[in-house]
Amino acid sequence: MTSAVPAAPQQPVVAVLGTGIMGAAMARSLLRAGLEVRAWNRTPAKAAPLAADGATVTRTAAEAVRGAHLVLTSLSDTTAVAAALAAASEGLHRGQVLLQTSTVGPDGAVELAQRAADLGLVHLDAPVAGTRQPAEAGALTVLVSGPSAARAVAGPVLDAIGQRTVWVGEEPGAASRLKLVVNTWVVNLVGGVAECLNLAEGLGVDPRAFLDVVRGGPLDTGYLQSKSAAVLDGDLTPSFALSTALKDTRLILEAAGRAGVRLDLTAASAARFERAEADGHGDEDMVATYYAGRAPERDGD
User: Which parts of the sequence belong to the 6-phosphogluconate dehydrogenase NADP-binding domain (predicted)?
Assistant: First the structure.
C-alpha cells in the first residue's frame, strides 16, 4: 500500500544517491534552482566535487536521506539502486518520495516499487531521456509514472532537472516501458552512425563528404553530426557510456523477448557494443561502437 505523501514544502530538500555522469549533472541543476542538495556516492571521490557547487556531501547514504523530502537515485541498475536504498534505510522516513531516474527496465521498476513500499516510500518510476549535455543544462525529458499525489513534492525537482516532464500514468513500470522504446531508437541510431563511418573508411570515402551531403536535409539529425564529430575528432568523452548503452540494450532485448517481439537491429547493436566493450571501449561514449566495425588489420599492413 502506498504511503501518504506529506504536504509539499516550498523548497524541498533533495538527497541525490549516485553522482556519476547523470547524477552529478542533475545535482548541479538542482543547486542552480536554489534547492538544498545532499549528495552521496559509493565512491566518495565522485561526489566530492559537488561540495564546491554548494551541495552537502555526506559520508553515508543514511546521512544524505535523513530529513530530506525527496530521494533521487541515479545509479547503474536495479541491484545498485536496491543496495543504495538498503544503505540509506536507517535515515529514510515514511512518506518520503523516491524519484528513481535510472534505466532499470519494467521488471526492475516493479521490483524497486515494492522495495520502496516496504520502506514506506512513495515511488516514482522516472527514467530520463537525454545524456550528459542536456543533464548539465537541466534540459532532460523525464518520463514519470507513479502516484499523482507525489506530483506536488516532485514538481520543483522535475522542473530543475528537465525541460519537459511526461506523466505516463500511475502504474509502476509504465515510464520504464516507454524509456525502453526511446532507447531502442537511440542505440540503433548510433549504430547507424557508426556503420556509415565504417563503410566510408572502408571504401576510401571522406566521411565529411557524407556528412555534407545529408547536412540540413531530411536525412540529417543533430545526433548524426555530433556523434560523427566525436569519432572524427577522436574525443570519446562519454555523454552516454558504451557499457551503460549495452546494459540498456540487454534490458530492451529481454523485454522484447517476453513480449514476443523480434528486434533484429537491436540485437545487432548489442553485438557491436559487446565487441567494442571487449576491446576496452566500455568507458568511452557509446559511439565507440564504431570500433566494432573496423576491419581487422592484416599481417603486413
Answer: 14-169
Q: Boundaries of CATH 3.40.50.720 in the chain?
A: 13-171
For the stretch 220-232, pLDDT in tens is: 999 999 999 999 9
Angle between the 264-276 and 174-203 helix axes, to the nearest 10 degrees?
70
pLDDT in tens, 69-89: 999 999 999 999 999 999 999
List the CATH code of the domain at 177-293. 1.10.1040.10
56 close to 37: Cβ distance less than 8 angstroms: yes
Residue 172 grid cell:
509502476
Residue with cell 547536412: 215
Ordered DSSP codes for 81-146 = HHHHHHHHGGG--TT-EEEE-S--HHHHHHHHHHHHHHTT-EEEE--EE--HHHHHTT-EEEEEES
**Which helix (DSSP H) or strand (DSSP E) does residue 255 occupy?**
helix 242-259
For the chain, give every residue range classified as CATH 1.10.1040.10.
Answer: 177-293
Set of cell numbers at residue 94: 515514511
Matching residue, cell 561514449: 285
CA distance linking residue 146 with residue 141, whole number of Å: 16
> What phi, psi does 174 have (nearest 5°)?
-65, -45
State the architecture of 13-171 in CATH terms. Answer: 3-Layer(aba) Sandwich (3.40)
DSSP letter at 6 equals P
Q: What is the pTM of this model?
A: 0.92
Q: Are residues 190 and 46 in contact, defined by beta-carbon separation less than 8 angstroms?
A: no
